[in-house]
Amino acid sequence: MLTVLVVEDDGAYRDALGRTLRRAGFRAVLVNGLTEATGACAATPPDLALVDLRLEDGDGVSVVRMLAASVPACRCVMLSGHGTIAAAVEAMRAGAVDFRTKPLTGAELVQALRDAVDPLPAESLDAVERGHILGVLQACGGNISEAARRLGLHRRTLQRKLQKLPPAR
């Protein structure tokens, strides 16, 4: 069970977030600001953090920086009802992996946390090109001239690309 540190100064919203996270199978640690977040991290290092941008005793970016320094493995998702591009950039530079604006549905919130834990792997452009070329070549029964025609390439260009293809992983 993953532990989520919820840093939110609005008590009713914080409690609602806690209920949503517990129903989704997370262990929620609820705190209301920077000071409590620091203490909670020392007691139980979280796997994830859900941090509001504006807090009564500081700002959420300070919490993200504190988490990045004290619990580097913790993945932070920033929440804000007053989101701006500048705030999102600052949060991401501080170490947040996502920035969401309120209001969020429970499903959106849970998905944001799951994406923070297990993001989709980014496939390189070389790997995509390799897969496409080899797929067309296979569909043509290994005939380079036909594959080149289908790909819109000159036969020699396709041969050079095949020589330079990165190896399969």
Task: List the topology elements.
Blueprint: E1 3-7, H1 11-23, E2 27-31, H2 34-43, E3 48-52, E4 54-55, E5 58-59, H3 60-70, E6 75-80, H4 85-94, E7 96-101, H5 106-117, H6 125-139, H7 144-151, H8 155-164
Parallel strand pairs: 1-2, 1-3, 3-6, 6-7
Antiparallel strand pairs: 4-5
| SSE succession | EHEHEEEHEHEHHHH
What's the N-to-C terminus distance? 32 Å
| Total of DSSP H or I helical runs spanning 4+ residues | 8
In which order are the strands of the major sheet placed?
Answer: 2-1-3-6-7
Q: How much helical structure, as a percent, in the residues? A: 40-55%
Number of structurally distinct domains: 2
Q: Give me the count of strands.
A: 7
Find the CATH superfamily of the largest domain: Response regulator
The CATH architecture assignment of the largest domain turns out to be 3-Layer(aba) Sandwich
Q: Can you tag this structure with a few keywords?
A:
alpha/beta; five-stranded parallel sheet; two-stranded antiparallel ribbon; elongated
Summarize the structure.
With 169 residues, the chain is an alpha/beta fold. It has helices at 11-23, 34-43, 60-70, 85-94, 106-117, 125-139, 144-151, 155-164; strands spanning 3-7, 27-31, 48-52, 54-55, 58-59, 75-80, 96-101. It folds into two domains: 3-117, 3-Layer(aba) Sandwich (Rossmann fold); 125-164, Homeodomain-like (Arc Repressor Mutant, subunit A, Orthogonal Bundle).
